[in-house]
């Protein structure tokens, strides 16, 4: 099957969505499918990639590392016809996603959309009219979803939530975890690279440093943890618009010497970081899945996470980590429990690896291919072809 994926972000930009695209595309290829990516162009990224089509773009006014594609191309229709796409899968409801939807309609192809993000939680990136933007998103998203043949949710919790608002079919397909890449991880790299002592327990967070990730909560929790467990450090792997503000907050809390911001790391060293840590901490309340929680499990790293949306399914409470409400005392207590009980931490770590195998990337790619087959098989059956956005 030939699949066209339209996205508003792609490499070299780093995010959970980009990682999901990379993982999904590579495993579909392994299963014998052809995947074509339609994505923004990024300045200073000159790598030529097979089956990747770049669109002229401009830097985001609030975060220049992120570029905004101009969703116009005189050659798109002829390119889609030349490739012979069987299905279009959009990964955003906005610029490139809207372009993909129009392309599906004009080419009479089935349209699938993955609901990667709780979009109304991200309107703080809008330069103005955020309240109005939130209302527009609440109206626009159901309308866009109902334009699709099938909507994919990364977790059942999110599927149930959005399914209440939609007429179209919703399928649950998590982004799979590349479990094999963790087998060759260098568990000593993180300590060697940053001079972290062998007796120091490492708390790790991997992800974009954005407001929606609730990292200020993690800093507050770590300040309490450190009072009882001074031989610890907190490591943030990743970058984002909140980085400097968070570094200043760490200084204000007296944590400057114990909190490390690595910035962006090559994928191999991200994996090494998972393998070299003792505990994963995660406080975001906006995740549709929380891919990094699955990656932590694949590395045998138990997690303490706030129980919200997708994260509530990615951590099995008391089995491979702990879930807590958005409560500083409860969150802190679970971290301290795992830091101070090594046998418990090791038992959860062993179980984490077993749980990660259940959502291996290849298995999830097979499941996604079944969704594609359903969508293409319904083109003349019960599901409608994608049409114009309706106000109903």
Write the CATH homologous superfamily of the largest domain.
Glycogen Phosphorylase B
As for the CATH topology of the largest domain, it is: Rossmann fold
Would you count the extended β strands for me? 15
Q: Can you tell me the residue ranges where pLDDT is under 50 for at least 5 consecutive residues?
A: 122-132, 379-385, 387-392
Structural class: alpha/beta
Descriptors for this entry?
seven-stranded parallel sheet; Rossmann fold; alpha/beta; 40% helix; 2 domains; 17% strand; six-stranded parallel sheet; 392 residues; disordered C terminus; 14 helices
Short description:
The protein is an alpha/beta fold and 392 residues long. It has 14 helices and 15 strands. The protein has a 7-stranded parallel sheet, sandwiched between helices. It has a 6-stranded parallel sheet with strand order 12-11-10-13-14-15, with helices on both faces.
